[in-house]
Specification:
Blueprint: E1 3-10, E2 24-29, E3 33-37, H1 44-51, E4 59-64, E5 67-68, H2 74-80, E6 81-84, H3 96-101, H4 116-128, H5 144-158, E7 162-166, H6 174-189, E8 193-197, H7 201-207, E9 210-213, E10 221-224, H8 225-228, H9 231-238, E11 242-247, E12 250-255
Parallel strand pairs: 3-8, 3-9, 6-7, 7-8
Antiparallel strand pairs: 1-2, 1-4, 4-5, 9-10, 11-12
Helix pairs in contact: 4-5
This protein binds adenosine-5'-triphosphate.
Adenosine-5'-triphosphate binds next to helix 1.
Length: 257
């Protein structure tokens, strides 16, 4: 079973002094769905990039299934860890299908072209995200929400064991917010590790099994979403007064002006 273990980890946030008492020591496990919550600029994206081994930490270490990340081959990391970025860049002109097929890249030998099996996986992902009608369109012609769905389709095609997703509901209308969170929950249910940054505490309350709360001015806390998502913990997180009610047994928070 996949495990990503953080030991006294401190992400290297530019222009921020290192705060060793803010270090993280926790394990993200297969089947869990983690939401990272915190105010703008606290370091959620930087932490996700650190977990993907795209950025060295300021302190501490990360192990994937007991192996230090720094000792793993880039190809192994690319096969096992997938990240969806918050901003989608157009590296080069490509169609939606060509872009999504890039997710197969870590699974191909050098110079090997995608085969029939790869195409089947890519077409299924396009179908799952309602992108089949867009398959031959240029990626840069898609709307923000369509591009977000194309980025998630690419991650599906990569089939990583660890899904790191930066603000998965960005740009999405309400129906696709639910569809995408359902897709991520499905990945957790098949024993993937799912870790995402979120701005919507209600999405976290509805979908996440665990949360990590990153405070700018005090040590982080982490654990079961049901016990940590409280007014007591969230008001100081956002420095915002909140009202709370309940819907279907889950808390529902509303900012109070
Ligand atoms: N290249 C950079 N140069 C200088 N500062 C940077 C750079 N990249 C990030 N930062 C700063 O690092 C801090 C953490 O940024 P990060 O994007 O990780 O925050 P975040 O919690 O994801 O924010 P948001 O909720 O706004 O997406 C911010 O203050 C940001 O301005």
């Amino acid at each position: 079973m996949t495990e990503l273990t953080l030991t006294h980890l401190l992400a290297d946030i530019p222009n921020h002094p290192d705060q060793p008492d803010h270090a993280l020591s926790l394990t993200f496990q297969a089947g869990q769905m983690w939401g990272i919550l915190g105010p703008n600029g606290v370091g959620k994206t930087t932490l996700l990039h650190t977990l993907a081994a795209l950025k060295a930490p300021a302190l501490g270490s990360i192990e994937l299934n007991g192996h230090p990340m720094t000792a793993l081959h880039r190809l192994t990391l690319a096969q096992q860890i997938g990240i969806m970025f918050q901003e989608h860049q157009d590296g080069f002109p490509a169609t939606v299908l060509e872009t999504v097929l890039l997710g197969r890249f870590p699974h191909l030998s050098p110079w090997e072209m995608e085969g029939e099996g790869d195409l089947v996986i890519a077409l299924a992902a396009l179908d799952r995200l309602d992108l089949t009608p867009f398959r031959d369109r240029a990626l840069n012609s898609l709307s923000g929400g369509e591009r977000q769905r194309a980025a998630l389709a690419t991650l599906m095609v990569q089939t990583p064991d660890v899904w790191l997703v930066d603000e998965p509901t960005n740009h999405l209308d309400l129906r696709y917010q639910v569809a995408v969170m359902g897709l991520l929950a499905e990945q957790a249910s098949i024993d993937k590790v799912v870790v995402m940054s979120l701005h919507d505490v209600n999405v976290a309350a509805q979908w996440c099994s665990h949360v990590l709360l990153l405070y700018p001015d005090r040590p982080p806390i982490w654990g079961a979403a049901a016990s940590l998502l409280t007014q007591h913990n969230l008001e100081p997180l956002y420095r915002q007064k909140l009202a709370m009610t309940e819907l279907n047994g889950k808390p529902l928070f509303v900012p109070v002006a």
